[in-house]
Design goal:
2 copies of one chain form a homodimer. Chain A has 10 helices and no strands. By secondary structure, chain A is an all-alpha fold. In chain A, helix 1 packs across helix 2, helix 8 packs antiparallel against helix 9 and helix 9 packs antiparallel against helix 10. Chain A is elongated, with a radius of gyration of 25 Å. Chains A and B meet through helix 6, helix 7, helix 8, helix 9 and helix 10 of A and helix 6, helix 7, helix 8, helix 9 and helix 10 of B. Chain A binds a DNA duplex through helix 3.
Chain lengths: 231, 231
DNA sequence: GTCTATACATAGATAGAC
DNA sequence: GTCTATCTATGTATAGAC
């Protein structure tokens, strides 16, 4: 690995650990093990170095979330992505940048971060749409809103973990989000059957218990079978 | 307002806008309109100033979330708190601190942040417990997990808003979280009635519509009924 | 209590030798 | 391509006058 790559790697690490504003060229050179001459030969300065390092970090972060693109059932992809191992206490390489004043003031750096979040949002929303289409989630939730909520719970999970110095609150947040997702999935699965079952009860009550016809083949029966099959 | 108060107010604002590491004593003095002599007379240094300013910020942030302690129905308090107006693009005065390297390295500052998050967590969890006890949320969700999820979705909402420079993604995240909460509430509301309805149906089915023998009361039927009750 | 003057380290970048 | 030397501005704090 040449000096240039080592400098990019070092910058990427320091951007993660200390952010942009608090990282000095001196820190980078020390971690990369190169002198000032090399750094200013390969890069125009701190900004240039940060742009290239951030591109690398974002590329890696997107790859780590490739699970959303897998071939599994959409609902399962959502759950699996929530429970992806994430280094809460170290924080998010990308989300971290949003709190750095010098990043916010730098259109190029901020643009990279914004684009990354938009791209992840599209992935989440697409998978949620598939889940709704497959009847795995209720049709009355907005996929874009839900996508933002999942992005937020992950980013916020990092914040909780860093605040406490402990992974536990982030894991708890993911479990809480997954629990709500499960309730929604159950609701979607029971929606059609539940309505049917209720109306069949209404029918029975309306027609009387000894009315007679078709009992075994009631929707209630099928609903039980469908629900088992759905999961 | 004396120099001391002005200095604390100015520090509080700058901690919010630029964080701790990127805020210099010079910035603070300029914003407060006082000289160096005043600052080092009232405070031992930057750290001391930050501690007192952060205490103030936290106090205000807790007050802003006092809604969770209101007398309204617990579920409504949860929803209302999600939809509290929040300055997404400006970020969270408290959560912001978790991304500052100099805060993470300062036990006193980090301790204040950690304590604030714990306190908010207790508020959320307590309200969620009340909602479950009131039958407004399903009994099988963990209040602590759900509390962490709500804290995270808010903190993450700030991150999304700062990344995009737009309040919209944060609002979307809150709507998404509220939608999941609503599904859970609907599920809880239908739970008790559902059990009753289902068990009455089971009874009808078990005793037979035509006086017959248990044909309708197959395991498949009961499993469908039980699942409605259990979830 | 508040001011100005001063001190010392670090940030970020340039110059020029090898 | 890489190194050391140098430069200017800023961060953080102290000294001492008023």
């Amino acid at each position: 690995m040449g000096s240039k790559e080592r400098l990019i790697e070092a910058t990427s690490e320091l951007l993660w650990e200390r952010g942009y504003a608090a990282t000095s060229p001196h820190d980078i050179m020390a971690l990369a093990g190169v002198g000032q001459g090399s750094m200013y030969h390969h890069f125009s300065g701190k900004h240039d170095l940060a742009v290239q390092a951030l591109r690398l970090s974002i590329e890696r972060a997107m790859d780590a979330n490739g699970l959303l693109d897998s071939a599994a059932q959409p609902l399962e992809r959502l759950r699996a992505n929530l429970f992806l191992p994430r280094p809460g206490v170290k924080g998010c390489r990308v989300g971290r940048m949003t709190q750095d004043p010098d990043v916010l003031a730098d259109p190029e750096l901020l643009g990279l971060v914004a684009e990354a979040f938009e791209q992840m949002h599209r992935k989440w929303a697409e998978t949620i749409r598939e889940a709704i289409d497959a009847g795995q989630l209720p049709g009355n939730v907005d996929p874009d809103d839900l996508a933002s909520a999942f992005q937020a719970v992950i980013q916020g999970g990092y914040v909780l973990a860093k605040a406490s110095g402990d992974q536990a609150p982030m894991d708890a947040a993911m479990r809480g989000a997954a629990a709500l997702l499960d309730v929604a999935a159950t609701s979607a699965a029971s929606q059609q059957p539940a309505i049917t079952a209720e109306s069949s009860l209404d029918q029975i009550l309306r027609h009387g218990v000894d009315g007679g016809e078709d009992m075994a083949a009631t929707p209630a029966n099928r609903s039980g079978g469908n629900r088992l099959g759905a999961h």
